[in-house]
Each structure stands twice: as C-alpha cells, then as structure tokens.
Amino acid sequence: MSRELRLRIVSGVILGILVLAATWAGGIWFRSLSVLIMVLVHYEFSTITNAPVKAPLANAIGWLSVLATAGFILTSLPSMALAAIIIGAAGAVLAGVIRGAGLWSAAAVLYAGFSGLALAEIRGEGHFGLFAMLFLFAIVWSTDILAYFCGRALGGPKLAPRISPGKTWSGAVFGAAAGVGAGVGVALIVRQGGGLMIPLIALILAVASEIGDLFESWVKRRFGAKDSSQLIPGHGGVMDRVDGLVFAAFAAFLLGNLLPLADHAGVADELAARLLGL
C-alpha cells in the first residue's frame, strides 16, 4: 500500500468519525458542520475560479451572501437562508455585468449555499433526519469507494476522458451498484423492509453523487487546478471530498419535496419520511 493511499485512508476515517458524530448529535452541531462545509466550499470554489482577482465586487457580494446564509442556517431559518442564496447569486451576476466575470461568483454562491442548506435541512433536529442522513452517507460513501477501487482494478473505457481521465465506466457502474446496495441496506435496518422506491431513490442519489464528482473535476480542469485546496491530507480540499455528497444532497432535497406528502411535522421530518417511507 502506497504512502498516499495510507494517508488517504487515515484522514478519511478520521473525517468520517467526526462527521458521523456531528450527524448523531444533530441540532447545532450538525448545522455548524453544514455551515463549515459551505464556507470552505465557497472559499475553494472562489479560489479555483480566481474570483477575488477577476471579479472582486461579485466575490465580495458572494461572501456577504454566504455569511448571511450561514447565520440563517445556524438559527434554523431555512426560508431566509434560501432568500440569501438567491439574492447573493443575483447580486453577483449584476456585479459581473457592471464589472465583469460575475457568473463564476454566482455559481460559487449557489453551489456552496445550497450544499449547506440542503445538508442542514435533511438532518434537521429529530431521528427521522438522522435516518435520512445515514441513508445519504451510505450511498455516497459506498459509491465513491467502490468507484475508486473498481475503476483502478478493472480499468476499461473512460467515463469522461476530457473531464476526468481517471474515471471509467466500470468504476461508475460498480460504484452505483454499491450505492444502491448500501441504501437498501440502511432502509432494511431502519424500516425492517424496503419497498420498490428505495432502490430507485438510492440509484438516483448514487448517480447524482457521480455527476457531482464529474462537475467538480470539470471546474478544476476548466481552471487548471489539480485539487481544490490542500486542507485535507491525502484528499486535497473540502470540495474534493464532498463533491459527490453535495449533488446527492441536492437530489435528496428535491426528491423529498417531489415525492408524495408524508404525515410528519417539520421540514426535515417530512423530507426524511418521504425518502425512507417512515
């Protein structure tokens, strides 16, 4: 085993323990984790796209929006957080029209802001949110791990060679299959039964996770960056670690609002109930 792989595994295990502890605790602990992820993702996205230099006004507006969103997430005001994200992105675009290069700053606000909001709302305060987050984590982590190892072991045709030359169709297929299996496993443990919707939802979230990985790779390649930063030993930056989780959380949040209404109070409980049929 190479030194790089050992470092990747050790840092991944430590991060996983910390994330699971915050997920179990819920409340302000998980909201704080969501805000931390959001702030670091916005910093890395802005740095990769060189927004502070190319679009200083749009970048400043983006930071104001992200900080306002953080405050609203921490105080459990999701509607205000959503408004802050939309207003911030619109402000960045307008600043770009005036001073140039604002679209990437707007993209940073949307990408980071919705990641923080979606994660916080999925977890919520109660045990339904805990089940939904464990469901989501199991899918994303299984997809990522199996895609990495199966892709390296099996090789074969490239998935998107112009975006990420290392990714293969074999990795994508086995990763998605692992994600579905993990999601069904969590659902069976939680519900003592699955239902036909569970593997379909798990597949959607697994594919969303892989799309998120490709999107981040495209952004980095577009701006000639190898990693989003060097904050996490063996993994690069926060965006490198949560790229799949961000898109899967987006998809879960949308699915939670599109599936039939469940009989539970609260946004997070409704979302979790719809995802797992609780």
From TrEMBL:
Family: Belongs to the CDS family.
Entry EC no(s): 2.7.7.41
Pathway, per record: Lipid metabolism; Phospholipid metabolism; CDP-diacylglycerol biosynthesis; CDP-diacylglycerol from sn-glycerol 3-phosphate: step 3/3
Protein name according to UniProt: Phosphatidate cytidylyltransferase
Pfam families noted in UniProt: CTP_transf_1
Chain ranges passing through the membrane: 12-41, 61-94, 101-122, 128-150, 171-190, 196-215
Superkingdom in the source lineage: Bacteria
InterPro entries for the chain: PC_trans (IPR000374)
PANTHER family: PHOSPHATIDATE CYTIDYLYLTRANSFERASE (PTHR46382)
An MF annotation (GO) of this entry: nucleotidyltransferase activity
Keywords: Cell membrane, Lipid biosynthesis, Lipid metabolism, Membrane, Nucleotidyltransferase, Phospholipid biosynthesis, Phospholipid metabolism, Transferase, Transmembrane, Transmembrane helix
UniProt-annotated location(s): Cell membrane
Bilayer topology: Multi-pass membrane protein
Catalytic activity, reaction form: a 1,2-diacyl-sn-glycero-3-phosphate + CTP + H(+) = a CDP-1,2-diacyl-sn-glycerol + diphosphate
